[in-house]
Write a structure and sequence with these properties.
Blueprint: E1 3-5, E2 9-14, E3 17-25, E4 30-36, E5 39-40, E6 62-63, E7 91-97, E8 102-107, H1 114-119, E9 125-132, E10 136-144, E11 152-158, E12 161-163, E13 170-173, E14 179-182, E15 187-190, E16 202-206, E17 215-219, E18 222-230, E19 234-239, H2 241-247, E20 260-274, E21 279-287
Antiparallel strand pairs: 1-2, 2-3, 3-4, 4-5, 6-11, 7-8, 8-9, 9-10, 10-21, 11-20, 12-20, 13-17, 14-15, 14-16, 16-19, 17-18, 18-21, 19-20
Bound molecules: 6-O-phosphono-beta-D-glucopyranose.
EC number: 5.1.3.15
Catalytic activity: alpha-D-glucose 6-phosphate = beta-D-glucose 6-phosphate
Protein name: Glucose-6-phosphate 1-epimerase
Length: 297
């Protein structure tokens, strides 16, 4: 069986290589583990809550309908940081393909966290498709506006926590020349650094990155993660470093920031607006590749 479920989580194992597998919690439809040829690719806090009491600290939480806290939209502004998808139990729709093993999860206001849908009474329908390749993990989202009369306004983001060996000798490439909003400095500027390095807390929201631009996480000249995006023009690069890690109760061990790096593809710079009946889709593809340093246009 390449797909098994115990009612609270779903595990996919690749039929041609049993050491490649992915685990998805129904809560938040959060990917909590992805092993590629036996090697874990995602970081998960040792104190992460996996019982539905709070969003998972690690793996791939899903951010919808708002990234951060909204300051401009009244209804979205009532929702907690990063919205309601990561705090809702999704419906497991089942397996849609046997090889590569592919499954789907769905979320709509009827089954989402009722405390939160009360705050944001919009209609929406989400379908998440997770495909486990021999050498990749693809997470795809389709957002539909089922309303007959109202527009649907939202952000989307895959809050991907990548596992790394050592933050101090790791960099992120192919973002040079991109405009970004620095959430710590609260300033917008163009990144002039050839690569993004980490020696302190970083919370950077890169904007309008073309689909063709792959983002790579490189350690000592070796690309350890490659990330392709479709329809996700923005990317957050986040490492909490020492003090912020201490301030998060579910972040353990406190030195965990050395072993993780969030690269989060999304559509967060502005809101996507769907007219009644319209839909929107996007995906993130994680895989290993050779070093691809891309020149800026
Ligand atoms: C990142 C944000 O996406 O998520 C950071 O850019 C934030 O500002 C981080 O601190 C973690 O957020 P949370 O809500 O999971 O603690």
């Amino acid at each position: 069986m390449s797909v098994t479920t115990d009612g609270s989580k779903v595990v996919l194992t690749h039929p041609d290589d049993k050491t490649s597998c992915v685990t998805i919690l129904n809560y938040g439809a959060t990917v909590t583990s992805w092993k590629l040829k036996g090697q874990e690719q995602l970081w998960l806090s040792e104190a992460a809550k996996l019982d539905g009491s709070k969003p998972v600290r690690g793996g791939i939480p899903l951010v919808f309908p708002i990234f951060g806290k909204s300051k401009t939209d009244d209804a979205l502004g009532k929702l907690p940081q990063h919205g309601l998808a990561r705090n809702s139990t999704w419906e497991f729709l089942g397996q849609t393909k046997s090889n590569p093993p592919t499954v789907q999860f769905a979320l709509s206001p009827e089954i989402a966290n009722q405390e939160l849908t009360k705050l944001w009474p919009s209609d929406f329908s989400l379908v998440l498709t997770i495909e486990l390749g021999l050498d990749f993990l693809k997470t795809a989202i389709e957002v539909n506006n089922p309303s007959k009369t109202e527009e649907l306004k939202f952000n989307w983001l895959f809050h991907t926590y990548l596992k790394i060996e050592d933050i101090e000798d790791t960099f992120v490439s192919n973002l040079v020349g991109m405009k970004l909003y620095d959430q710590l400095l609260q300033e917008t500027y163009v990144d002039k650094h050839p690569v993004v390095t980490f020696h302190e807390e970083k919370d950077l929201v890169y904007k309008n990155i073309a689909d063709e631009r792959v983002i790579q996480v490189v350690r000592r000249g070796e690309p350890v993660h490659t990330l392709k995006r479709h329809n996700l023009p923005d990317a957050v690069v986040w490492n909490p470093w020492i003090n912020k890690s201490k301030s998060m109760a579910d972040f353990e061990p406190k030195t965990g920031y050395e072993k993780m790096l969030c690269v989060e593809p999304g559509h967060v710079h502005d809101l996507i607006t769907l007219a009644p009946g319209e839909s929107w889709d996007a995906y993130q593809l994680l895989y290993r590749d050779e070093l691809k340093y891309q020149a800026i246009e």
